[in-house]
Specification:
Subcellular location (chain A): Cell membrane
Largest sheet of chain B: 2 strands, antiparallel
Helix content of chain A: over 70%
Helix content of chain B: over 70%
CATH topology of chain A: ABC transporter involved in vitamin B12 uptake, BtuC
Low-confidence stretches of chain B: 1-11
Distance between the termini of chain B: 29 Å
Oligomer: heterodimer
Number of helices of chain B: 13
Organism (chain A): Deinococcus aerius
Order of helices and strands of chain B: HHHHHHEEHHHHHHH
Keywords (chain A): Cell inner membrane, Cell membrane, Membrane, Transmembrane, Transmembrane helix, Transport
Number of strands of chain B: 2
Radius of gyration of chain A: 21 Å
Strand content of chain A: under 5%
Strand order of the largest sheet of chain A: 1-2
Mean pLDDT of chain A: 89
Low-confidence stretches of chain A: none
Main location (chain A): membrane
Pfam families (chain A): BPD_transp_2
Shape of chain B: globular
CATH class of chain A: Mainly Alpha
CATH architecture of chain A: Orthogonal Bundle
Strand content of chain B: under 5%
Number of domains of chain B: 1
């Protein structure tokens, strides 16, 4: 219970920071809180936000997937290649999603069947999948996607300023939140992350759960790849390069513990938005990208360091109080 | 929490070392095979110039791998090395721009100390702030790179800004072996002996194998962790100076992505990501193997685009084989102790 309160406190802090960043942006520029600016800002978060959902689940079971951005790039390249070879778009999209699930499945099999650490496995597949993306497209870019589909990428819900990819994200975030926080499957993730041996003895099929999560992570990265391709109307092998760090930074900043067993969808989503809003606020006043990079890094470190230091101060105070009570 | 089987027989250390040696032997055999096959297809691959370039390319990675290995042995990781390399390369270059007369050894010392300072930030966060190394060094990967971008501000250091003795140091050679390679080799051997035979070096293994046991045995874990990260930073800083000397041109993106190559080399070389296992000999061989594969692919005219995929597949193969071998050894040891 105490742990739940502590983690909710963290999420409230992050949400508070989002509001502060929004207000700060409004003070910096009157154009900041306009619907069109916010819409643009939020649309830029789409891919990271999508991949953060499944990354949250993986980190809760104490695994990690560094290959997400490479799967994004590979799927984007595959989509371009299929389209360029005149494969009908619906079929191409299905094949791309299948490729993503397959890529995630390979990660999952290596982790669960061979018992390899996911950090090492996904460093390998990070290179492998990005390499496959380059093998498919080289340094070509494929851009002639039909407008019906690119509209899905940078269009809004008709009559609103809500970008379509974000609408998709909201639906998936709700599903993820319900699955994680209100189903037996979701509860089992916390159990596995908190103590895998105990979870195994309790009859949970740890390997199968992890394999499912890796497949979902691959599937979500493929979806992010499709969104990326349509949003920029460009399939390139280097699409999304380096995004894995943004995704992991957001998940950890959102209060999901790297040691597993702790975290929530709300926290991770709030952290994605915090990074995005700060990004937007800083760019609107022409603060360069470098400051944003520094801020992201400091936020990430601070999100773990500050609670640690506070806990230590509290412990020291309790110890002193105890000593005072026992004379001599 | 996964507990690896701990064999309790007296014969186990011998077998364990034999297995590790076998692993390094396998890597060397693979290396020789690769060199021979590529050389047979294209004799120019084994030409002096080609081998020289190969060694120069591997030298800087191999150097950073030394620090990374020390950190990995303690079951930590240092993702920030690429940013440290980039930042020290540019700042050392700026030092030459500001004071053209600065002696080369002094500039090297500057890069080394700067790296040590950056490493001490990581060390403090991990040892005393109790921030997991993955989070701490992912954070500083961003922060150091951001600082680099802010300082560089679109500028560039060119070979024209650098003193001739500095550039000559990188390109010069003794008996045909580039200075850079000799220097890195000397450092690897020095650190190898330290890790293998000195109390301080063994403590890194002890911490990675079982932190509580190491604490009970009187190891000051926090101080050792701090030292490990400072060493990793200092070595990366020195690698930044060598990067500048080797390439002459440095902008804000220098060294980006290096951390993954470094970790890959260490892991291929048999350094366990779970701590406590691995040698510098193996890690260095791993770096060399990845480098040779890279340039063999170029020589064999494999499209450059396939390289990354092949390197990734190789890394996966290496760690998979390693896991299977370790499992088989563990089983054999268990059977042995039962008999």
């Amino acid at each position: 219970m105490k742990q739940l309160r502590a983690s909710l406190g963290w999420e409230a802090t992050i949400l508070g920071l989002v509001v502060l960043a929004l207000l700060g942006g409004a003070l910096l520029s009157p154009d900041f809180l306009t619907a069109s600016n916010l819409s643009f800002l939020v649309a830029n978060l789409a891919e990271v936000a999508l991949m953060a959902l499944t990354m949250t689940l993986l980190v809760i079971v104490a695994e990690i997937d560094l290959s997400v951005a490479s799967i994004l790039g590979m799927c984007s390249s595959l989509l371009g290649l299929l389209w360029a070879s005149h494969v009908p778009m619906p079929l191409a999209l299905l094949l791309v999603l299948g490729a993503g699930a397959l890529a995630g499945g390979l990660n999952g099999l290596l982790v669960t069947r061979l018992g390899l650490p996911s950090l090492a496995v996904t460093i390998g597949t990070l290179a492998l999948y990005r390499g496959l993306a380059y093998a498919m497209l080289g340094d070509r870019a494929i851009a002639d996607f039909p407008q019906t589909y690119t509209n899905l990428g940078f269009g809004n819900i008709p009559g609103t300023q809500i970008p379509l990819p974000i609408a998709l994200f909201v639906v998936l975030a709700l599903i993820t939140a319900v699955v994680l926080h209100a189903t037996a499957f979701g509860r089992s993730l916390y159990a596995i992350g908190a103590n895998e041996v105990a979870a195994r003895f309790a009859g949970l099929r740890v390997e199968r759960v992890k394999l499912i999560l890796f497949v979902l992570s691959g599937l979500m990265s493929a979806l992010a790849g499709i969104v990326f391709t349509f949003r920029f109307s460009s399939a390139r092998a280097d699409n999304g390069a380096g995004l894995e760090l943004s995704v992991i930074a957001a998940v950890l900043l959102g209060g999901v513990s790297i040691f597993g067993g702790r975290g929530s969808v709300v926290g991770a989503v709030a952290a994605v938005f915090l990074i995005g809003v700060i990004n937007g606020a800083l760019t609107i006043v022409d603060v360069s990208n470098e400051i944003l990079t520094i801020v992201t890094g400091l936020l990430l470190i601070g999100s773990v360091l500050v609670p640690n230091l506070l806990a230590r101060v509290r412990a020291a105070r309790e110890r002193r109080a105890l000593l005072r009570r026992e004379p001599g | 929490m996964t507990t690896r089987p701990h064999p309790a027989t007296s014969a186990s250390p011998g077998l364990m070392t034999r297995l590790l040696r076998a692993r390094e032997l396998t890597l060397v055999a693979l290396l020789v095979l690769l060199l021979a096959v590529t050389g047979a297809i294209n004799p120019r691959f084994l030409g002096a110039q080609s081998l020289r370039d190969l060694l120069l390319n591997v030298a800087i990675i191999a150097l950073v791998v030394v620090g990374q290995t020390i950190v990995l042995l303690m079951r930590h990781v240092d993702l920030s090395v690429s940013s440290v390399v980039g930042l020290t390369a540019f700042l050392t270059g700026s030092l030459f721009v500001a004071y053209p007369g600065v002696p080369v050894p002094l500039a090297m010392l500057f890069g080394l100390l700067l790296g040590a300072v950056l490493g001490s930030v990581n060390g403090w966060l991990v040892a005393y702030g109790k921030v997991p190394a993955l989070v701490a060094t992912l954070g500083t990967l961003y922060v150091f790179r951001g600082v680099d971008y802010a300082i560089v501000h679109g500028r560039q250091i060119n070979a024209a800004n650098l003193p001739a003795p500095f550039l000559n140091f990188a390109t010069g050679s003794v008996l045909g072996v580039p200075n850079l390679v000799l220097l890195v080799l000397a450092l690897m051997i020095g650190f190898g002996i330290y890790l293998n035979s000195y109390r301080g070096g063994r403590e890194y293994y002890a911490i990675g194998s079982n932190t509580e046991a190491a604490t009970l045995a009187g190891v000051n874990v926090n101080r050792r962790t701090m030292t490990g990260f400072i060493l990793s930073g200092a070595i990366a800083g020195f690698a930044g100076v060598l990067y500048l000397a080797r390439y002459g041109t440095v902008d804000a993106t220098a060294g980006t992505g290096l951390e993954l190559q470094v970790i890959a080399a260490a892991v291929v070389g048999g350094v366990s990501i779970n701590g406590g296992v691995g040698t510098l000999l193996g890690a260095g061989t791993g770096a060399l193997l990845l480098g040779v594969i890279g340039s063999a692919l170029v020589t064999l005219r494999a499209p450059a685009f396939y390289q990354q995929a092949i390197q990734g597949a190789l890394l996966l193969l290496a760690i998979s084989v390693d896991a299977l071998l370790a499992r088989r050894t563990a089983r054999r040891l268990q059977e042995g102790s039962r008999r």
